[in-house]
Amino acid sequence: MARRPQRFTEDDFESLEGRASKTEQKKAVQRMAALGEQLAELSKKQIQSLPVEERLIEALLDVQLITSFEARRRQFQRIGKLLRNEDEAVILSYLTPKQGVKKLAQLDRWVERMIEQRDPAIKEFCKSYNAAEGHSLRQHVLRIHRDITRQASAEELAASKLKLLNYAQQVALISDNSK
Question: The organism sits in which domain of life (predicted)?
């Protein structure tokens, strides 16, 4: 006797909505490792003044002493994992002086454009910034539009937009670094 396929309910899909896929999780670790590389370029004094866990500060200081390529790569992976526990906004605030005010204003305009135009603007952003992933950008924009349609509070909407801006800043930092 053949089994009947299980019927999925709307609740099943809603429970998966906020979760990131394994690929997205791996790419997030890669982005964090790349941000770790940029943090490692800061001076010893700047690293020690970072408002992060002591383990992360030690890892950033250790990587400056490592000369082996493979050992550095592994250390940056470790730094990426440690960065996941930290506040993205705080870390980006230490790296944004590298970008400058003009670049931040440009990224803010990109965010607004992606929210308004969706796919065409997302594709253009991905062309401009090689580290950008269209799927992740679409997910952020989709969450913002869901917040708008369900008339979420201003704080929730601002938080969703901030997540998109943080992602755009990370991508811009990584893309600028790899050019």
Answer: Bacteria
